[in-house]
User: Which sequence fits this backbone?
């Protein structure tokens, strides 16, 4: 740079990815775009997504869960797609919420979470519906940044239970929706680790405290953390991501 020598770079290609303008994304001029070849694909139709995920979920349920739960496969997928389409329309990305973007991977993450159902504890329709609620909470609700958006989401997802699943919400939820937790860490040293509902929050707190005590006993740099329900709830969410 100091000598101001011209350098010519050959045999190099540029690859870029972009979305439509909005949510902090700026308009790219045609003068710039003329240097690129475009590779794009249209959004999948709901019927196609329903077919794909219904086959995946039905295969799992027929292999591992009681046969009566097969009747819940199509309603679960319909409810998921209904939720997804509403979120696309209502929760748009803005400069303060640029991460409010939803795509096919989110639906796949919900279905993948439902595929973690434990055959020994998922015996009734309410059990599978409760797991479905939890997975949607983790995939979509945990992304929301304020109480207004979270309250709106809670109202939306609870309305889908009677609408699509034809179940009474009181029979599905055993407590508050915000305190619905699943995890595979409640039995230290378990092999395999079973992903099940955590209905006893007090026991969940004490279990995480035991993990913390074990960590402090084996490390010189100790963590002086105080565990309570909300903090342990975040630990549960992190555990789900890295499991």
Assistant:
């Amino acid at each position: 740079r100091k000598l101001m020598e011209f350098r010519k770079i050959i045999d190099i290609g540029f690859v870029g990815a972009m979305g439509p303008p909005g949510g902090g994304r700026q308009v790219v001029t045609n003068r710039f775009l003329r240097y690129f070849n475009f590779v794009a694909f249209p959004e999948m139709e709901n019927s196609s997504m329903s077919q794909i995920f219904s086959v995946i979920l039905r295969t799992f349920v027929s292999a591992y869960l009681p046969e009566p739960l097969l009747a819940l496969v199509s309603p679960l997928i319909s409810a998921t797609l209904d939720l997804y389409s509403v979120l696309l329309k209502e929760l748009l990305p803005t400069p303060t919420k640029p991460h409010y973007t939803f795509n096919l991977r989110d639906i796949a993450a919900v279905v993948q979470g439902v595929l973690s159902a434990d055959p020994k504890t998922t015996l009734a329709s309410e059990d599978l519906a409760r797991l479905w609620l939890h997975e949607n909470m983790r995939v979509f609700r945990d992304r929301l940044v304020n109480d207004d958006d979270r309250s709106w989401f809670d109202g939306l997802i609870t309305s889908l239970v009677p609408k699509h699943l034809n179940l009474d919400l009181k029979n599905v939820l055993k407590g508050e929706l915000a305190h619905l937790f699943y995890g595979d860490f409640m039995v230290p040293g378990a092999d395999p680790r079973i992903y099940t509902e955590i209905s006893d929050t007090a026991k969940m707190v004490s279990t995480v405290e035991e993990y913390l005590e074990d960590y402090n006993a084996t490390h010189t740099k100790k963590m002086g953390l105080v565990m309570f329900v909300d903090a342990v709830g975040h630990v549960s969410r992190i555990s789900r991501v890295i499991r």
Summary: The chain is about 50% helix and 0% strand. The longest strand covers residues 181-183. The two ends are 49 Å apart (CA to CA).
